[in-house]
Amino acid sequence: AIKCGIVGLPNVGKSTLFNALTNAGIESANYPFCTIEPNVGVVPVPDAREQALAEIVNPERVMPATVDFMDIAGLVEGASKGEGLGNKFLANIRETDAIVQVVRCFENDDIVHVAGKVDPINDIEIINMELVFADQDSIDKAIQKVQRVAKSGDKEASARLALLQKIHAEIETGTLVRNIGLNEDELKEIQDLHLLTVKPMMYIANVNEDGFENNPLLDSVRELAEKQGAVVVAICASLEEEIAQLDDEDKADFLEEMGQDEPGLNRVIRAGYELLGLQTYFTAGVKEVRAWTVKKGATAPQAAGVIHTDFEKGFIRAEVTAYQDFVDNKGDAGAKAAGKQRLEGKEYIVQDGDVMHFRFNV
Ligand code: GDP
């Protein structure tokens, strides 16, 4: 499953956001380190298309695509040197596919800020530097390891050493590895190091209810993110937590009152999906209508492999109907009759919303 790690300084609203996301109701208290164990919540990706498909197919159940969110506590200044919860958080971040960094953009005198004042740019710098320090460690170790072999004249080792040294020089100036501009081959070469700052990252600017506009703190985060080519999503985590606790009917009423058509959390989940370059395809049968997650650019066999690895190995072909064609023609039979169902082979690049049936050997 796709996993996003939620990081940020203490008291910025990580647990509040996590609670809202999972509606798990874990303790969110006003003191640092309140979430000591990493918590994982499985969060459905909001997508109205599943319901539209279900109305046509009448399946026994509807299964949305999901993203795992992991609440990662313990990232404080000096963490990479063993401060706070020490290096534990690093191991957790290493496991994730993307980093969601919560940044406090709300003032509230009752809620202490670990650095003494609300300054999102400074906060981001602290977090990012800890990640960079951790990567620096990994690079240093890798350099030591490859240096001896390179000295003996091994070409591959020399090339690796040169690449590692180039990265070392860049991150020494505080540059995140993802911003160095490494090409695909170079990224592949360093994959085994599981660097942290190579992962895609987005900022969640946590604002007060009235903090979405005319908020200099939010503006400053947006400005910094633009320079870094990073995404910013502004939400009010405490409000989202309240919304998440309502039942569906109350939720709809509440959102309508606020002039919104969906919870702000949906934007977080979708941004995460977008950040990772993901898209959705569907299977639609009488047993279930289900959304599956694949990378943009995935081939039909790779898409089949998300369901089961045997499907990928034994892939023969796929019957594919574009989402809109499926809906317009009220299902498989109609789409087929209208000539809108295609037979696609191994090379087919899956498009977002494709409704697919796979044929395979077992
Ligand atoms: P964590 O340490 O980053 O996990 O932070 P918490 O989620 O525990 O939040 C710290 C405190 O800030 C809690 O008392 C929250 O209720 C409060 N808080 C979180 N988000 C917001 C927000 O958007 N506005 C305001 N005013 N308070 C918030």
From TrEMBL:
Which positions bind ATP? N11, V12, G13, K14, S15, T16
Q: What name does this protein carry?
A: Ribosome-binding ATPase YchF
Q: What does this protein do?
A: ATPase that binds to both the 70S ribosome and the 50S ribosomal subunit in a nucleotide-independent manner.
- Family that this chain belongs to: Belongs to the TRAFAC class OBG-HflX-like GTPase superfamily. OBG GTPase family. YchF/OLA1 subfamily.
Q: Which InterPro entries match?
A: ATPase_YchF/OLA1 (IPR004396), Beta-grasp_dom_sf (IPR012675), G_OBG (IPR031167), GTP-bd (IPR006073), P-loop_NTPase (IPR027417), TGS (IPR004095), TGS-like (IPR012676), TGS-like_dom_sf (IPR023192)
- Alphabetical list of Pfam families matching this protein: MMR_HSR1, YchF-GTPase_C
Write down the PROSITE patterns for this protein, in alphabetical order: G_OBG, TGS
Query: Cross-referenced SUPFAM superfamilies, in alphabetical order?
Result: P-loop containing nucleoside triphosphate hydrolases, TGS-like
The UniProt keyword set, sorted, is: ATP-binding, Magnesium, Metal-binding, Nucleotide-binding
